[in-house]
Amino acid sequence: MTTASPAEQRPAGTAASPAGGGLVRAVTRRHLPKIHLAVVLGLAAAAAGLAQPVLIGDLIDAVGAGSGLVAPIAFVVVLFLADAALTSVQAYVMGHAGESIVYDTRTALVDRVLGADVAAFGKLRQGDVFARIVTDTSILKSAWSQSVAGIVVDAAMVVGGIALMLVLDPVLLGVTAVCLTASGLVALVLAKRLRKAAQQSRAITGDLGADVQRALAALSTVKACRAERFEGYRIGAVALRARRSGVRVSALSAMLSPAMSVGLQASLAAVIVTGASRVAGGSMTAADLTAFVMYLFYLVSPLVMMLLGIGQLQQGRAAIGRIDELAAIEQEPMPAAPSYAAQPWGAGGMAVEFQGVRFGYEPGEPTLRGVSFTAPSQGLTAIVGPSGAGKTTLLQLLMRFHEADGGRILLGGENIARLPLPVLRGLVGYVQQDSPLLRGTLHENLLYGVPSATADDIHRALWLAGLEDVVRRLPRGLSTEIGDSGLGLSGGQRQRLAIARMLVRRPAVLLLDEATSNLDSESELLLRRSVRSIAAECTVLSVAHRMSTVVDADRIVVLERGMVHDVGTHAELLRTSPLYRRLAAIQRRDGEQHAAPVHTEGR
Ligand SMILES: Nc1ncnc2c1ncn2[C@@H]1O[C@H](COP(=O)(O)OP(=O)(O)OP(=O)(O)O)[C@@H](O)[C@H]1O
């Protein structure tokens, strides 16, 4: 086993991917060459487009003068073709850049979320996180990369067009400018509102994702409580808010381009009337008027596109804000190159020692108030106590999901605060309450996180967890598919599979959190045997729910209100610990009615 020094560990809040500076900006910077190429291609296409009215004006002059038409026609055709080719290549390059930005942002965001500090992640709504990773990032393509490049090209087209119109006839340009300025101001106001509406819409979409995820994650509970309609109405209400805000965004977007079109149509009417009188008065040629009107038409598309692009950019900025916010989530301290080699089978366990450990989830509200006890390097140590005593919290501190506020936790004599996280989590296996199984085969579940595990590792883990016979009886064996949450397996089988999955990793210490809460008597007996076998191989620290599992333990730690009350064997504690006797009595009384947990609701 090699370990990295704390200095090599990445401090919380900083990571390989930038958080504070804005993830999207950093990712976009990586793809700037492609965006620049797209802009250059777009500008070349714009130049080809802008030259067309001049050449068509020349063609009209040539027709009027009766001179040769072959060269002017050839120029116009070449420009048309060049314009079309440049535009399509530009669209492809831009699309490629957009997809690459979306891909890089998604993968970086997933890394940030997977590497997040457990407490920081716990404060987020999972559906909203999902919406940010999947939906908000998809907006980046159209609303960020494409619109930025599009705006640059369209703006160049507009500026170029206006310059050429100025050369052709400044008076007509003045008439055009008055009409366009009025509609431009309206468009700017609309764009501002659009940004606000888009921000709201993105936030409501996040709420919707969070609510749908909440209902789906607890579908059985929803059905058991006959709350389908309630959830339907609740989600429907958020969906209605999403619809309303989406409609508002669509309405504002829809008003943007007509606002400009009205200005253009008014300009066109004014230019034709003014231009016709200037041609009649001899101060302008018919060819110049034709070219001017063509420029006006040429301006329509880039102007409208530019305004649409600004609208999209506003929507994109709302998404970028949400993405950057998620990317800034606090990170666990991970070494740059995690290193851990699994223990060989039979290598034995590691002693776990809590020395005056203090911890509170909230400041001023201590959950653990100086916990001290030792779990020897082999055998089963059970932790019992009333509900809310802090049993699960103890295990989570040992996994370093949270950092202790005071005291030390030693693993094999080493302070776990000094162990790199991958090493610590390689040494300690944690089977939490309702350990989720993953959609896929039994085999995939067992190999989860340890693709290098051998067939021997798997068989030994299955044997220790008492699952060998169960798997042998399945027609498809380890290739049997299990659904989300392990649908298709009994509660006991699910739990033992979760334990086997941890055992494949060959941990030195196995933490079982209320691993027998779901089991019937037969499954529980099987599991008790398994735990005994496992305890012969490594340290087992088990938050026990039932007296029957505690009776076997080599050592029982009785926890109450965040403090160790007593430590001993079952027989010793029955003699010496009033609290333990009381817990046992409650369990016995309940057990006569039905097999119930060993803990009581806090006192
Ligand atoms: N993420 C959290 N944020 C804030 N408080 C928490 C959090 N998790 C647990 N607590 C609180 O910490 C206390 C100890 O919780 P813990 O889950 O460790 O108790 P426990 O002994 O395992 O209880 P049980 O037997 O009911 O599972 C409880 O008062 C609980 O409400």
Short account of what is shown:
With 603 residues, the chain is of the alpha/beta class. It is built from 19 helices and twelve strands. The two termini are 45 Å apart.
Can you tell me the CATH topology of the largest domain? ABC transporter transmembrane region fold
Helix content: 55-70%
Strand order of the largest sheet: 6-9-10-3-11-12
Give a quick account of the main beta sheet: strands, pairing sense, barrel closure: 6 strands, mixed
- Given the helix and strand composition, which structural class is it? alpha/beta
Number of domains: 2
* Average pLDDT score: 81
Uncertain residue segments: 1-20, 594-603
Bound molecules: adenosine-5'-triphosphate
Give your account of this protein's structure:
With 603 residues, the chain is an alpha/beta fold. The protein has 2 domains: 15-327, ABC transporter type 1, transmembrane domain (ABC transporter transmembrane region fold); 352-593, Rossmann fold. Helices cover 63% and strands 10% of the residues. The chain is built from 19 helices and 12 strands. The chain has helices spanning 23-30, 32-65, 70-114, 118-122, 126-168, 170-217, 219-224, 228-280, 286-327, 391-398, 421-427, 442-446, 455-464, 468-473, 491-503, 521-537, 547-551, 570-576, 578-593; strands spanning 352-359, 368-375, 379-384, 406-411, 414-415, 428-431, 440-441, 481-482, 509-513, 539-543, 555-560, 563-568. A 6-stranded mixed β-sheet has the order 6-9-10-3-11-12, with helices on both faces. A hairpin with a 2-residue loop joins strand 4 (406-411) and strand 5 (414-415). Helix 13 crosses helix 15 (491-503) and helix 18 (570-576) crosses helix 19. The longest helix is centred in the middle third of the chain and has 53 residues, at 228-280. The two termini are 45 Å apart. 39% of the residues are buried. The model is unreliable at 1-20 and 594-603 (pLDDT under 50). The structure holds adenosine-5'-triphosphate. Adenosine-5'-triphosphate binds at residues 122, 361, 367, 385, 387-393, 599. It is found in: Cell membrane. Keywords: ATP-binding, Membrane, Nucleotide-binding, Transmembrane, Transmembrane helix.
